[in-house]
Amino acid sequence: MKYHQINSALFVKNRKKFTAEMKPNSVAVFNSNDIYPVSADSSLPFAQHRDIFYLSGVDQEESILLLFPDAPYENQKEMLFLKETSEHIAIWEGEKLTKERAFQVSGIRTVYWLQDFHKILNEMMTYSDTMYINTNEHYRATVETETREARFVKWWKEHYPAHQVAKSNPILQRIRSIKESEEIDLIQHACDITEKGFRRLLSFVKPNVTEYEIEAELVHEFIRNRSKGFAYTPIIASGNNANVLHYIENNQQCKAGDLILLDVAAEYANYSSDMTRTIPVSGKYSDRQKAVYNAVLRVKNEATKMLTPGTLWKQYHIEVGKLMTSELLGLGLIDKADVQNENPEWPAYKKYFMHGTSHHMGLDTHDYGLLHEPMKANMVFTVEPGIYIPAEGFGIRLEDNVVVQEKGEPFNLMRNIPIEVDEIESLMNS
């Protein structure tokens, strides 16, 4: 891996938090992701399942974590199962985890090769009453491919029908949403890499540059700073492309006078950052662009202040809607009649700002977190309002990542990334 090894103490803490919530006499199993084929003998780059990584630090395919806090013997309380490495694998694929190395990474002393899994699981099933299965229940999830985790669940239900079934996901949704200090440091590091990429762009962007050239500049800077690259598919949207919320073609020329909406960010050690900035191709905003830009910035700054312990996500978005309505009235994009006659299910401001303002982030860009529960300290959220005006040929979104504090305003992990109009113009023209 490109990143520096994470101290195994983080994963020890994470496992303790999870097992503290398990029912008596229960087992939990977590599988790595598959390596997904493309065609012929090619495959996509491996990306680890975030849950097994969160609980073990293992960043390798064909891995299984088993947790059994009430096991009769100490060496059965937590176990790793790994693909057995060999000299052949070392030559053709490179180093894989040895048992000793797996202990250093995870803090788990009991490590077996994968071929022993079914035999040992069978023994654990004779001791236990309940199995925690790890299903994907994220509110944004759309899963059309049968995952390694799903295949295991199907197999387990066929072989152990007499056991009770429990779900890992509700526990993970809660504990993963509240970050340890080590996790916040890793997200901060991802944000710092993103800053380097963005600053590189400010001196690079000129009229007639292409969106894909900008993408190339970013990925160069990210990888040279030990990131695998983008935390998510980058959006580099010039001109009217910014009004397509998930524009990812990144194949157009950036024209003088236009704006470029950049929803781009680096990952580090599987932790995401998530940044959006909107910059002028020619290095200077027009008066109208500046007015809209500053309206979005005011909404972002005021919305950020609301992210405090006890805040409910749904009510927060209602309040942000009120802020945006005021700004759109000031810009002349809506009038008082639009507001008076609005549909409460789709308020007038939604014509120009149709998406949410904040989501949890961490190991996943849209990270775990139960939206119906109050916000808590050490949750990490994005703040990303936008105004999209197809009739005027531009859209503006601004986004930072912030950590909810015990008291006061959140801590901005992107506080050092230029966002004010004057600073961006100065850096683009220096």
Q: What do these coordinates show?
A:
Keywords: Aminopeptidase, Hydrolase, Manganese, Metal-binding, Protease. It is an enzyme of class 3 (hydrolase). GO terms for molecular function: manganese ion binding; metalloaminopeptidase activity. With 430 residues, this protein is an alpha+beta fold. It has 13 helices and 18 strands. The strands form six sheets. It has a six-stranded mixed β-sheet with strand order 6-5-4-1-7-8, with helices on both faces. A three-stranded antiparallel β-sheet has the order 9-10-13, covered by helices on one side. The relative contact order is 0.11.
Question: What topology does this entry show?
Answer:
Blueprint: H1 9-19, E1 26-31, E2 37-39, E3 42-43, H2 50-56, E4 63-67, E5 78-82, H3 87-92, H4 99-106, E6 110-113, H5 117-127, E7 130-133, H6 148-159, E8 164-167, H7 169-177, H8 181-202, H9 211-223, E9 235-238, E10 259-263, E11 267-268, E12 271-272, E13 276-280, H10 287-305, H11 313-331, H12 336-340, E14 380-383, E15 386-389, E16 394-397, E17 400-403, E18 411-412, H13 421-428
Parallel strand pairs: 1-7, 5-6, 7-8
Antiparallel strand pairs: 1-4, 2-3, 4-5, 9-10, 10-13, 11-12, 14-17, 15-16, 17-18
Helix pairs in contact: 1-2, 8-9, 10-11
Mean pLDDT: 97
**Overall geometric form:** globular
- Class of secondary structure makeup: alpha+beta
Quaternary form: single chain
> Poorly predicted ranges (pLDDT <50, ≥5 residues)?
none
The number of distinct helices, counting runs of at least 4 residues, comes to 13
In helices, the fraction of residues equals 25-40%
Catalytic activity: Release of any N-terminal amino acid, including proline, that is linked to proline, even from a dipeptide or tripeptide
Family: Belongs to the peptidase M24B family.
GO molecular function, one term: manganese ion binding
InterPro entries: Aminopep_P_N, Creatin/AminoP/Spt16_N, Creatinase/aminopeptidase-like, Pept_M24, X-Pro_dipept-like
